[in-house]
């Protein structure tokens, strides 16, 4: 069974799935630290040595899973091995294990999903905790409020595969632009052609001179967040600048005015609030 995040739960937890946040070790939540204090071992998906070192303050059994990545291998195979190691480790271990992934552990991540899905078959109890996602950091970096005009979010390759319609009135955040059109892991840089189909797809919904930004939030306390702005028509020219840890921000091309004027009037009406609320409650 998967618990909602709740450190006071009386159930014994076998696997805590936690997020490390984005900036080194400084975005661990109090409840993640509480899970670490109880755990026997940690399984970690994170490339920074300082994060491993920090986790070794809680247990000397910190297993870094990033070595599972192999050039040219299907990423899903890697994620399956990571999930198996966590599940096997939880079965072997006397106390709880922590599975720590960067950012939020449920946001655009596969191994944590597979651990959650397979745990019940093995009789393992999982507690998933929220973490600070790259998206949370980007909202701060560009002072973006998703309540203002809404927000549409897609994974870049999935957008092309399923051909979701983009709405140019709504800001868009597109994940994994640097990993377009392949399910295989590679550290190789991209050729300009990698972005042609994606640019053509965006141009179905936006004018070619619409400005977009590659956003990369800071991942070390001493580094700065980066923003690279360019026009959609120049996508291929940006190939050398695009990497696997950027998110593409597409601001709206149009401002959408209020469509329902009658309802807008009701919002100001005392009579209306009395009909939709109960004054005796
Ligand atoms: C596999 S997902 C992991 C997301 C992570 N779980 C989170 O909560 O942010 C990788 C994608 O997250 C986004 N991402 C990761 N690191 C980022 C960063 N430093 N700045 C902006 N976006 C980032 C990019 O879209 C990247 O392709």
From TrEMBL:
Keyword Glycosyltransferase set for record: no
All residue ranges annotated as the Tetrapyrrole methylase domain in the record: 15-221
Keywords: Methyltransferase, Transferase
Keyword Transcription: no
UniProt xrefs under InterPro entries: 4pyrrol_Mease, 4pyrrol_Methylase_sf, 4pyrrole_Mease_sub1
GO molecular function: methyltransferase activity
GO biological process: methylation
UniProt name for this protein: Tetrapyrrole (Corrin/Porphyrin) Methylases
Species for this entry: Haladaptatus paucihalophilus DX253
